[in-house]
Design goal:
5 helices, mainly alpha
Length: 141
């Protein structure tokens, strides 16, 4: 079996057929064939597949582990402090350069203002959700 493929048939009818010499010559047993499969879904099947990995309504109420949440907050705060330093440098450079020079010099660089605002929004939303879910858990349980 060294160097041979395990496939023995040239037919899918249900019985074994040995390949002919011409089929062997043209590449049978050397490569597997790829067949395009076209399958159509109706509207209900599409809705079902779209809802497959959707978050449930109670996902926001689940508490994150306190240690993990604290570590995440600490990590985000460190990145925010670095972004704030970068933003002050960015503003100082902006004062020295013209608008066209600033646009050209910032191509491909991280915009610290955008990242700072998005990180702060993410941090606030995660902390608010954590606190609300803690309060709901203490009242319900």
């Amino acid at each position: 079996m060294m160097g041979q493929e395990p496939r023995q048939t040239t037919s899918n009818i249900g019985h074994l057929e040995k390949p002919s010499l011409q089929a062997l010559y043209h590449g049978l047993n050397k490569h597997y064939y790829s067949i395009n499969i076209n399958y159509r879904k109706n509207e209900l099947e599409q809705k079902m597949l779209l809802n497959l990995y959707k978050k449930k309504w109670n996902e926001g109420l689940k508490l994150e582990q306190f240690d993990d949440h604290a570590k995440h907050n600490e990590k985000v705060m460190k990145t925010m402090s670095n972004l704030a330093k970068d933003y002050t440098k960015w503003i100082e450079e902006e004062m020295k350069k013209t608008t066209t020079e600033m646009v050209v010099s910032n191509v491909g660089k991280i915009n610290p203002k955008k990242h700072l605002s998005s990180d702060s929004e993410d941090l606030m939303s995660s902390n608010i959700l954590q606190n609300l879910s803690m309060m709901i858990d203490t009242k319900t349980f």
